[in-house]
Every structure is written in C-alpha cells, then in structure tokens.
Amino acid sequence: MGALTASLIAIAGLALGWVAIEMACKPCLDKGREAIDRSLNPDYDPDDDDIRAPLNPSTTPADENASDPTSTVVKIS
C-alpha cells in the first residue's frame, strides 16, 4: 500500500510540475510552438515574409464593419 501511495504522490507532483512550467514559460513555449507549426506547414514560404509585419495581425473593428453594408460608422470628433 505504501508503494501505491508513493507512486500516486510522484505522479501528482509531476503533473503539478508540468503545469507550473507551462504557466511560467507560456510566452516562450507559444513562440516555439508557433515556429514549429510554421515550419511544418507545406504552404509556408519564408521568402514571402515581411520582417516588419506582425506575426498575428489583428483585424480592426472598422474592417469587420466594412463587409456589412447595413452598418453605419459614426465618427465623433
């Protein structure tokens, strides 16, 4: 019974350690995973990259409203 308890504690410790490392190193791990995904993508061409372009370009609210012809944009100055 003691061996079972010790193994359960060890497994729980490893799981908690893994979660702690994932949380602490999240920015670095995300960039690394993104680079791996990009390198495994057969349609990715590094020559097409613009060095100054953001990796994840976000859409602006004006872009989302531009596709909807019924919406109106009001500018307050």
Automatic annotation (TrEMBL):
Leader sequence segment: 1-17
Compositionally biased region (Polar residues): 56-77
Annotated InterPro entries: OEP7-like (IPR038944)
Region (Disordered): 36-77
Keywords on record: Signal
Protein name: Outer envelope membrane protein 7
